[in-house]
Description:
This protein has helices spanning about 25-65, 75-95, 95-100, 105-115, 130, 140-160. The protein is mostly helical. α1 (about 25-65) runs antiparallel to α2. The longest helix has about 40 residues, at about 25-65. It starts with about 25 loop residues before the first helix and ends in a 5-residue tail after the last helix. About 20% of the residues are buried.
Amino acid sequence: MNPTANPLDALRDIHLPADPSWWPPAPGWWILGLVIIAGVLMLFRVITARRRLTLPSRELVAQLERVDLNVDPEKTRDALIIMSRLVRRFAVTRYGRPNVARLTGDEWLGFLDQVSQSKDFTLGPGKLLAEGPYRLQSTDELNELKQTLINWARKARTNHRIH
Length: 163
């Protein structure tokens, strides 16, 4: 060896390892991907279940809105019967035949109040459902009842169980 030569000149440069490849990802990324997929699937199931539950009440609202109340005074009874049947069918479907089918008069109005968490049927315009078939109704009374029933259907959308 040459005593005048620098021993550091014999050393080689540092060689860095190759950059890690992006594939396959680390196990943590796989777990995160699976959690995200599971979350999206659960969200989809919740949304479709909620939509399935709210579809009948949205359909009831649409049918109630289509009821024509600009009819002859003699035909107002028919409009009342149509609205009453629509609401009863929906209630039987949503809350079960044993809970609803036997209800009449004040019990029926009380049930409707219970679902809407109000007194719109026993003390308000909803009384027309019990009294209406036995007397003539004005168009204003029917309009008020129609709006009460639409509000009831919207409440029933979120109130799935009776107490």
